[in-house]
Design goal:
Aspartate Aminotransferase, domain 1, 13 helices, Kynureninase, about 425 residues, PyrdxlP-dep_Trfase_major, alpha/beta, Aspartate Aminotransferase, domain 2, pyridine nucleotide biosynthesis, 7-stranded mixed β-sheet, hydrolase, 2 domains, globular
């Protein structure tokens, strides 16, 4: 899409006045004087989420253990209630999505369910750029089967250290491959991987397909009714603003509902017999809730109810349109004002190929991030040279982006990063 931008502050203010999403900024706890550009790592707290958290806490105070029975069992089945709302974000059926665990544990659950290696078909395809927790889970599951990771995990290398080569992934789908697990949006380069292309090719070879949506859900539009993957996992604390370490999400295609979960627990039991407390597991085959394990943490889930209500109001098409425009604006300003100081844009520029954040590259990226924080800008850094900047559609203004670039221009021109060292902090 052709977009026409200008480099003036007046232009940024004009864009904000025309922005139909701008009114939702007031629904988030924005801190005065802070330019927050790290919503792809931890989304801001929403006022709606605070309210739903208060509501659940008040009900706990009033009802105690009987909270599970009130409002037609809403909180006993809270994972179904929230799962149905979240399913809209990925174009899935309500029953195909549940809320549980963490991204890593949900990936363990999915692999344990679907990975049944044989002598002929035992390899799992991965990329070499994905967030490492996925690889840790995959490797450990392979070891549990007594297999050698070097033999069973088929790593398809990136050709440039930034992007996944989809054709190379498909070429790697030999007869000995049982499963492929990839990110939908790469956390460093913001590349969107073509899920439909990969999934279709894998299914033609009888390969199970799983997707990590951590940097995709709430940032880009997806249609699982069309793509039809086997499973997906994701966190809810980035674009979905569920809170630090919020409970995660899990999708399983309805065609697999009758499969036995690889990691079973009593909340995956049939609801009709769950409290009969039988010693034999009776799998709930009605929905993705059959992969639940322990009792759901209501206070971790409650902020999601409020945040998801905002997504329902705005709609993903509107959010994606704003996200593409404001990230394009940031890239434009980077090209116009920052390139002369050694900055470059490292993410794909095409709308269809980039997620919700911009990867600004610089050889002094780590120290520049330290300088930004001193100037009350919150970015994050990813090895080896990436400053990740996420103008979140719901609460970032065009003026925020303009001011961010002004600050980066000052840092670059005066080399303000030189006062900081390269010693990595525990959390970056």
């Amino acid at each position: 899409m052709d977009r026409i931008f200008e480099t003036s502050l007046d232009f940024a203010k004009k864009k904000d006045q025309e922005d139909s999403v701008a009114k939702y900024r007031d629904r988030f706890f924005l801190q005065p004087g802070i330019i927050y550009m790290d919503g792809n790592s931890l989304g801001l707290s929403s006022k709606d989420g605070e309210e739903t958290l208060k509501i659940v806490n008040e009900k706990w105070k009033k009802y105690g253990v009987t909270i599970w029975n009130i409002e037609d069992g809403k909180y006993f089945l809270y994972q179904d209630f929230l799962g149905a709302k979240m399913a809209k974000l990925i174009g899935a059926l309500p029953e195909e999505v549940t809320i549980m665990g963490s991204t890593t544990m949900n990936l363990h659950s999915a692999i344990a369910t679907f990975y049944h290696p044989t002598k002929e078909k035992y390899k799992i395809i991965v990329d070499d750029l994905n967030f490492p927790t996925d690889r840790y889970a995959i490797d450990s599951q392979v070891k549990l089967h007594g297999l050698d990771v070097e033999q069973a995990v088929k790593v398809v290398p990136s050709p440039d250290g930034k992007l996944i080569d989809e054709d190379a992934m498909i070429e790697a789908m030999t007869d000995d491959v049982a499963m492929i697990i990839l990110p939908t949006v790469l956390y460093r380069s913001a590349q969107i991987v073509d899920m439909k292309k990969i999934t279709k090719a894998a299914h033609e070879k009888g390969i199970i397909v799983g997707w990590d949506l951590c940097h995709a859900i709430g940032a880009i539009e997806m249609d699982f009714s069309d793509i039809q993957p086997d499973f997906a996992v994701w966190c809810n604390y980035k674009y979905l603003n569920g809170g630090p370490g919020a409970i995660a999400g899990f999708y399983i295609n309805k065609k697999h509902f009758k499969m036995e979960p690889g990691l079973a627990g009593w909340h995956g039991n049939k609801k009709e017999t769950q409290f009969q407390l039988k010693q034999k597991f009776e799998h709930n085959t009605n929905n993705a809730g059959g992969w639940q394990t322990g009792t759901q943490p209501l206070l971790s889930m409650a902020p999601l109810e409020g945040s998801l209500s905002i997504f329902e109001e705005v709609g993903m098409p509107t959010l994606r349109k704003k996200s593409l425009d404001i990230t394009a604006y940031l890239m434009f300003l980077a090209d116009e004002k920052l390139a002369k100081y050694g900055f470059s844009v490292g993410n794909p520029r095409e709308d269809a190929k980039r997620g919700g954040h911009v990867c600004l590259e610089h050889e002094e990226a780590y120290r520049i991030c330290s300088a930004l924080k001193e100037k009350n800008v919150i970015p994050d850094f990813r090895e080896p040279n990436v400053i990740r900047l996420a103008p979140i559609a719901l609460y970032t203004s065009y003026e925020d982006v303009y001011k961010l670039v002004e600050i980066l221009e000052e840092i670059g021109a005066n080399k303000l990063y030189e006062k900081f060292d390269n010693t990595r902090a525990m959390v970056v």
